[in-house]
Amino acid sequence: MSEVLVVVGPGVVADAGLLAEIAEREFAALGVLGRIEHARDAAHLLSLTNTPPNTENTASPTTNAASPADAPVSADGSRRADALWRAGDGAVVILPGPTSEVRGLITEPLGLSRRPVVWVDVERVDGVTPGEGATHLHGRGIGGLAWGIRHAVHRVRHPSQRIAYGPEREQWGDLYRPDLSDRLDRPDRGGRVPVVALIHGGYWRSIWAADIMEALCADLAGRRLAVWNLEYRRPDLHGWQATISDVSAGLSALTDLVPAAAELDLSRVAVAGHSAGAQLALRAAADGSRMSLAVSLAGVLDLVEGDRRWLSSGAVAAALGHPAPTGHQGTSGHHAPTGPDGGAGGARGQAADVYAGASPLLRVPLHVRQLIVQGTADDLDLVDFSRRYAAAAREAGDEVTYLEMLGDHFDVITPTSPIWQATAEAIVRALA
Questions:
Q1: Measured at the alpha carbon of residue 259, what is the angle toward residues 367 and 293, in degrees to the nearest 5?
Q2: What pLDDT is recorded for position 65?
Q3: Is the confidence at residue 267, as pLDDT, over 50?
Q4: What is the span of the domain harbouring residue 131?
Q5: How many domains does the chain have?
Q6: 419, 375 in Cβ contact below 8 A?
Q7: Pairing with 203, which of 65, 179, 324, 328 sits 20 to 30 Å away (CA)?
Q8: 194 and 121 in a common domain
Q9: pLDDT tens digits for 346-381?
Q10: Which pairs from 97-103 meet CB under 8 Å and 24+ separation?
Q11: Hey, how many other C-beta atoms are within 10 angstroms of the C-beta on 209?
């Protein structure tokens, strides 16, 4: 069991009681000890992060939630938390707030040795580079605290190796190795293991990052699979070309850059993307990235209709840099974009080219086995896209398994959900 310290900096605009409720809920769900403290200033914050829990105060969060200066949370007694903290078995999540003295600490090492540090801004704050070993999450509202706690706990429980595939800050992947200590359970093929590359979604916006796939990383590694959790530059800050180039380079890095490639069976690679990440995964398959299985988890698979239906408040056009062009029904029953007079001239022609290259529905056949997963409680447009895509891919000659079950947009990346359990089993079978 780990201990998580949440520190709320001065000036954070959020109800103290609600922050405590969010933290307590995550502590209980993750089975960790936890406490929440409110810092008066930068010096107080540093003192809190380097001090074990107050063993004299074990009050429950519900009785102290309204008191910002005194809101410890402990699910299992402070003596145990004190021992864990002194041993370094814990993590720190900090909501820094607006003051310059506290924000100045984000880029500095906090002297917390091996304890992960996660900075969480409830507002969108681009361009923050945290100190070595720290993480910065932002722009997810007050619910970002829950994501920060999950990320901190995953870093403690499931260590990974971060490997850069380029010079930019967001060009990296986290490699998770399965535990193969039991020789009787070692896979065939000389002890090499299959690989699942994960591409996160978030409607191509930079507020969402690779951390949202970490629960799947742990689940898949527990199934004797290696996992490559890919980060990439998003188009809202870097442009569409940077995004597709990064995904291609990140997948190629499995062969070119990963030091542990000798233990990975690169003839058995699945690439799985969630939401917008599914579009990137299937586009990569169409572009020739090496994989034996492409997996769409609640994917945005028809970008033309996605833009016309104003999916996620115009996310498609914002990402691609163009609204969907006018079009006609193609021979496969899906929209084929055209230029102003059926040609490809001018800005309209450029848009047609971008959509033709990006939309998975316009790239079939992919000539790769595919698993298309969709929850019935998701956005109905995504249900529509997945059904029509699977039908079009099959008609074009691709080998497609379509898995539709009860579940919402995040159930498909929640390890305990029935739809993910069925998905994981299908991936394991495909890579056997």
A1: 20
A2: 37
A3: yes
A4: 3-155
A5: 2
A6: yes
A7: 328
A8: no
A9: 555 788 999 999 999 999 999 999 999 999 999 999
A10: 97/8, 97/9, 97/10, 97/11, 97/12, 98/11, 98/12, 99/9, 99/10, 99/11, 99/41, 99/42, 101/41, 101/42, 102/9, 102/10, 102/39, 102/41, 102/42, 102/45
A11: 21
- Residue 114 is part of a domain; what is its CATH number? 3.40.50.9100
Q: Are residues 255 and 131 part of one domain? A: no
Q: Which of 134-138, 187-191, 272-276, 383-387 has the lowest mean pLDDT?
A: 187-191
Identify which of 147, 172, 148 has the alpha carbon closest to the alpha carbon of residue 161: 172
248 plus 268 within the same structural domain: yes
- Greatest CA span in the chain, whole angstroms? 77
| pLDDT (tens digit per residue) in 66-105 | 333 344 444 444 444 454 455 556 899 999 999 999 999 9
* Domain end residue (candidates: 155, 184, 212): 155
DSSP β-bridge partners for residue 228: 175, 197
